[in-house]
Every structure is written in C-alpha cells, then in structure tokens.
Amino acid sequence: MNTEPKIRVGILNEREISFRLYGNYKTKRGHILSNECIAGIHQNGIFVNCADNEKLLLDNYGILEPEDEKNSFFELIDVTIGVEFHWQRKENQKFRGALQFIVENEKITAVNIINIEDYLTCVISAEMSATSSMELLKAHAVISRGWLLAQIKKSEKINENKAIYKSVTETETEYIRWWDREDHTCFDVCADDHCQRYQGITRANTTHVIDAVDATRGRVLTADGKICDARFSKSCGGVMEKFENTWEPVEHSYLQGLADTEDEKAIDLTVEENAEKWICSSPASFCNTGDQTVLSQVLNDYDRETGDFYRWKIEYTQAEISELAYRRSGFDFGEIIDIIPIKRGTSGRIIKLKIIGTKSVKIIGKELMIRRTFSNTHLYSSAFVVRKDNEQDGIPQKFTFTGAGWGHGVGLCQIGAAVMGAKGYDYTEILTHYFPNSKLEKLY
Q1: Once rounded to an integer, what is the mean pLDDT over residues 134-163?
Q2: Residue with the larger pLDDT of the pair 86 and 385
Q3: CA distance 413 to 431
C-alpha cells in the first residue's frame, strides 16, 4: 500500500434525511446543489430536494462531491449517537469529503467518503478529549488506523471467498451471539460506538490531534505479517480480555488477558471464586483512577456522565429484571430464579451465562448479548457478580449486580492508557503494553 486510501463511513439511516450543504456540491450528472436539502426514496431511486433547486433524481451511486474540498462541508440533521447506550442522543453533525446516499432496508443511508487520515483526526477527537496527552493520541491514532484497515482486509477476504459470515450459534439450550462490523455490507464502517466514534468536524480538531495523526501517518501495528485487529474500550477494569471471548473464535497473539499494571501479571479470573473476590474489590491498576485531570483529557462531556466506570453497581426488582430479560433477549423466562456464570474470560467478564426462570432456562452469550439482556441500553460490562435477596416461595425479589470495567476490555484501555501517558510512558510503550507480540510498521 503506497497511497492513502479513502473509506466509506455510514452515518445515518432514515426514511428521509435533512441536511445542509455549505458550499457547492456536484452530482455525477453535473448538477450543482447547495443550501438546505432533503433526501428520500423515490420509486426509481433516491431524490434530493434543495432550496432554490428543483427536485432531482440521483443515479445509482448517489454521490455529491464538493467543488472545494478544503473549504466545503455538509451537515446532517438529527444524527443519533451512542445507539442503545446510556448516553444515546441526537445531534447535528458536520463532515468534510463527499456525501453519498444509498438505499438500505427500505430507508436511505447517508455515507461519508473521506481520506483515512482525515477520518482518523475526527475519530480521535470523538473517542476522547482533544486535550489528551500527545502520547495517548499517537497510540490511539495507530490503533484506530490499524483496526480500520484490518476490517477492510477482512471484508475483502470474506467477499473473495464468498464466505457466509455467521455471528449466531443457537441450540435448544444455548443462544450465543456477537456483534462486529461485519453487520455492515454497504460501507466500510459505521460512525457510532459499534465501530469507532466518528462525528466529522463536529468536535474540535485541535492542532494537538492533527499533530498526533500526522506524526504517526500510515503507521499500524502488525503481527504474523498481518495488520493487527487493534481493539479498545473505555476501561478494562484492571485486566484485559481475550479477543476470542468477545467476538469470533479466533485467537490473536497480541490481544491477551494481561493485567493493566506494570508487571502485567493477572490472577486467574476464569475461576469463579477469584472473579467474585476481585470484582468486589478495587485492585490497583492503571485504569483505577479518580484523577479528574486525566479523566477530563480522555473522556468527552457525555462520557463523564459515567462516574463509576471502574467498579459499578445496579439493582433490579423481580418485576424489573424479568420484564427486561424478556424484552431485551426475546426469551420468555418468566420470573427469574437464578443467574449463574457458566464461563468467564481472562478479565472476569462472563462469556456464557445461564438464566433460570419459572418458564424456561437458557444459556446466553457472548459478553454484549449478556450486557444487552440486563439493561435498557447496555450494562457497563459483563464482568459482574449477582446477589439475590428477599426470596418469596423460592423466587428472589431483588437482584444486585456488582461489576467491573466499562466496555469489552479487549486491547487498549483508554483510561489506563491516559494514566500511562500522564506517568511519562511514550506511545510505543503504551502500544507494547496493550498489544504484546506486535510491532509498528509504516504502510504509506
């Protein structure tokens, strides 16, 4: 790879999309559009209706190219961010590059076509505060770039082999599912936490962030001759999780269950007794911090609405948890009698969980399925223990979840890496800590 690639980012999927064009944008057929516009589905394809212009039908590609790439941008109205997470909300977002509309699931999707380095600058600003330490920003630029390119390579391989990608395994007793970016087939990645947060130029792209991306331009982590599928989450909770425990059953030598400490020695949290004791304590680790200076650097305003990311607690009544489990999983358990960890990963996150109800019994997994089942959005993580109280005729009336960490815990721990940066570690040392058995390479 000698040149910087362009990528396609899915932003918004609606029946109609309102947007504004700041500057002139040109269709493939040479029409010039600007001002406030609406896009929607027409029987023959996609229509765009802009102020001071008659309604236009776009061709199958539906691409609007800016005449002035440097100074033009477009704004999408009411973009949902944090989909199904506790900070979900709508906001208007601005983007550089080209705007494409595609028909998808009887709706239209707005797709941003942009150079990868420009994309990365925006991702770093959206994933964390633009005032983070330079070493943390450099590390994040490397892993965000590598993750994206690894996903594109993976999609190409699946398409070449004409493979059917399966992320669900179901039997009468088990339902195991994971979510990954393979859910997207019409563009490279989405713009939300499902892939990487990308909010265009909505968040300020400071000189600090631009310098970090430029300093690492074209650089990625590699292992065994391949670009590393570098993952990250907000807080591992003290120990990193293995890739195969969260997504497809493929082992990566650089995504291992090490402790988020200087010596990297972790206790065996796959043992239930060890996991319970560890989750209900507050062991020292890089990401165990209350330093508001560090946290303000790595967390955006809506992320800081979460104060208990390292250790957390949530309570449910019987009525609440039984209704929640039915609505969110689709399985009618009746009243919940017991919640039993069957398998834990290296970070103490539950990979398989047995739910015993008055109507049915089912083992569910992997970690995101578990997190979705017991929350209107997502539990902070699946590293939790459950205490049952106030039994009536063998049916607990109260459930208390005590948990550790925020997110899947695989790869780089953003809060831990922020602390490492504050302690003076450089970005190569941060990357070595979170991605052992990998090396830095420059692709372009």
Answers
A1: 87
A2: 385
A3: 10
